[in-house]
Amino acid sequence: MFARLPGLDGVLVCRHHGHAVYGLDEHMKRHHNMPAAERRAQLALYKDAALLPPAEVPLPEPYGRPIDELGPAQDGFAVKLSRWPSASTVSHQDHAAQLWKPVKVQTFFRERRHVRYFIVRELEEGQGRETEQGPEKEQEREDGGPPPPQEQQEQQEQQEQQEQQEQQEQEKQKDGYWQRLSRLSYGWEDLKREDGEAVERMAEEALAKDRTGWFKRTRWVEHLQAYLDWKLLSYAVRPPSNDEPELKQVALVAEELVEQAVRGLSTLSMETLHWLRSAQVTEPNARPLGRMQNRGSQQRAARLWARLLCYCLRLVAAEEEEEGGEEGQRGGRKTTSLRSIARLFPWHGRQKLAATRLWKLASRAHGGGSSDDAISDLRKYVLRLSETLICQEVYHQPFQSGLVHFLAALGINPDTLRLRTAPQFSSLLGSLVYCVRVLAAEAFLPSRQRGEQGAAETRALLQKRSRYLVNGSHSPMSVMLSLLSYAKFISLRTPGSVAGSMWWSTNQQTFFIKGRPVELERFRTMAQGVVAEAERVLWEQLLWGGKGERGDSRLSVKLVGIEDDVTIVRRGVSFLSPARLRTGERWTLERLASVPAPVREARRRRRRGATGRR
User: CB count, 10 Å around CB of 402?
Assistant: First the structure.
């Protein structure tokens, strides 16, 4: 089955597969399906063979005799160094085709990471047999004496003719290889260009053929066609970096404003909170709007809204630099390139005015220090810019809203430059919807003026809610609610997503948890098995009952005798009557007294030993 190679210690070749092995037992187990007994027998035969790692196996000298155990040699090419100068393109192409030499190669290992080719000479048909017969003929000549001179001359002429024929055949073969290489090199660039175009077409078709209808619903592909550089657009909506102190200050104020708005929810009436959480015009939600259960999720939502404000301020700064004829000191070429994105941003109403005023306040606060008045002004214009972005009517042109445009820019994955799918985007969208609701409540009913607000202010809040915060209101919030509902619908039916990690089979008989099936029959018997195991532990280990003890000898309570009162919340109250409890206590004491002391002590020691091992 395995062969040793002469002159190469530490190399063992599998005759069946035609390559060397470096893990003998693993090779026989995986590739030969050999039982353990046969593997042990083979390992005993080759126990003295210390196999070398693939990287340490020495390669034979070039142009040596092929190794028959490795199978037939493969065709390969050897590079020839060249320093031939030429100014002619045609002559250089003709010379480039001669930089490769056809050779025959072999390798000890077939795995890609361990392949190391070495050159062997190409044998003619029958050459191996002649080589094998050569020592016998030489032995015969030694026994019979040297051949006569005439025979030596004939043999020499035949050998010269054979060498000439071999040389001519090799030259013809080389000419054929050079011609084929020349044709391949000429057409290589054309094939490479055609292949690249085909890959781009396949990517566009794969993007257009979305099976869930998510990209068709969002219409991001159509909107983002005006933006040639998606990488630059995703760079524009990034969180503020350390070299943007003005934006970091604005982001901090925005996060504090969201926290202030969330704290202000506790001072609103419960009915108002039910209305604020509802996405319907005429029906309040069953749950009130409040603080997120996970504090980290709420902080991420606030940072996401801060990214929207920083995106607006970056575009305002880029336009101001363009009007002033200045080049951005921070960001260099990217700051200058943001001007093309700034020209396409859909400003509406007083949005640009609020963003410009906020940018000037942020620049002034950074240059002159952060006083209380400066922070108060920043908070005022952060809320004003947020309100102008929320309170807008878009009707049949949703991307005329800066908030909806920000959703499309946020949908670009900055690492892959591909659009996010519904399961990937639903969490971001839900965070933005939450921020819109709490900031709208703060803008319509400021928490600092809660004591002065009455019925008129509450009615005004509900009217603005019906106009800007509900589904079907032709507002940016209406677009976001529609996309969020559709994204949740897709996520719950996508097994690979977090929301779709649990689902039922088509016949409702199997429940899947992250791809692992749980049969309904086993699920039904799970509670019964837990009860049976608890009963076994109670009788056999706590009450020292025998394994073969009959069930009728055990104390049991009928369900009719249980008095269950859900209004009783005190500790120490039993479901059994006092008389029944006294009967059970007397039975337990008699049971314990009937067990011999040596049996109790032995089982107690055994139980302690099991507890110690655990």
Answer: 23
